[in-house]
Amino acid sequence: MAANASTAASSSGGEVAPRPPQIDKRLLNAATSGDSTSMQALASQNPGILLGTTLTGNTCLHIASTYGHQGFCMDVVALENLLLTVENLDGETPLLAAVASGRARVASILLRCYQARQLSAAILWQDKEGCNALHHAIHSGHRELALELIEAEPALSKHVNKHGESTMFIAALRNFTHVFEKLLNIPESSHAGRHSENALHAVVRNGDEDGARKIMGKRPELARAADDLQGSTPATVAVLYNKTKVLRVLLEHDCSLGYVITRKGNPLLVCAASRGHVHVAGELLRHCPDASYQRASDNYTWLHEAVRFDHAEFVEFIMRRPQLSKLVNMRDHIGKTALHLAVQKCNPRIVASLLSHECIDATVLDNSNTAATWKLTTFTQNAKTLNWASDSIYIS
């Protein structure tokens, strides 16, 4: 980074450097109003006046740039180049201050000033949050400015802010396709995201099939990266957010992604069941017909999970597939089948679906030696949408 003009002492504890003068009130007013004539008159009498700062470290160029005064900015830079590299207490150069304030046109003009003076280090400056001008341009929605910055200094793509976010990750989150693709094509660009996510997590969350396809072509290793919160891979995100088409892209590139287990021990089919995402489950089975469907910690199957969350359509989806017949009588860690759980949940539609399956054994005993049929009478009075007695006829 460029030298901080407001530093009061050297890091080695040596001689104290003189502080910049406090900004002249007349110059501050001129910067706020964009009055170049007054600024030039003051500078003609005392050129050093232009380097004065406010108590927060802002120069007249910082002030004018945040107010959007293009003419003033160009005029004052013509008189004093050093203003371009002064850092305020937020760690902002005038360029950063302009971008962070949403002054895209001023930022574009200042960028050309930095380039003309070969101030690459100042263009790459990061503020106290670790954000550079490109981070702020993308955050503020200024796509054209973002592209200008990338063209001027591709190295901006390498920076990660204090929240762990790269510019590519933010562009992917905001679904700024062109900006994202430009960054992806820079070989050393960072793809990092918050909590160990990456740009592919963001692309998947947005349902961007084309973006996912591009990442899988250039950086396929991102598909195996898990976040540090839930241990979710991009495939897990696709399942949880019901992004069937994006999941298809991932599995077509590498079907083994469908076999991942989350940090909590959930196979992807169990994740799909918890949300009731039928189409996602179908896509998983199409690519991974023998994908894991049972949580090791408690023997919960994805059928148990669908019943637990009252996803009747999902239960019916499983019941329609002969290859999944074994699920109807599988027990969890306390010996309960999906039917036990459905009866406890008082869900007549799900009970009826389970009882209609040709392989159902309604007499299976749980660890307390209780069959689901014995509980049916107990819960009959709680049924409101269907007559439990009509379901009982399925039990033989």
Automatic annotation (TrEMBL):
Upper classification of the organism: Eukaryota, Viridiplantae, Streptophyta, Embryophyta, Tracheophyta
Pfam families, alphabetized: Ank (PF00023), Ank_2 (PF12796)
The organism's place on the tree of life at top rank: Eukaryota
Region of interest (Disordered), ranges: 1-21
SMART domains reported in the protein's UniProt record: ANK (SM00248)
InterPro entries (UniProt xref): Ankyrin_rpt, Ankyrin_rpt-contain_sf
Protein name as catalogued: Uncharacterized protein
Stretches with biased composition (Low complexity): 1-12
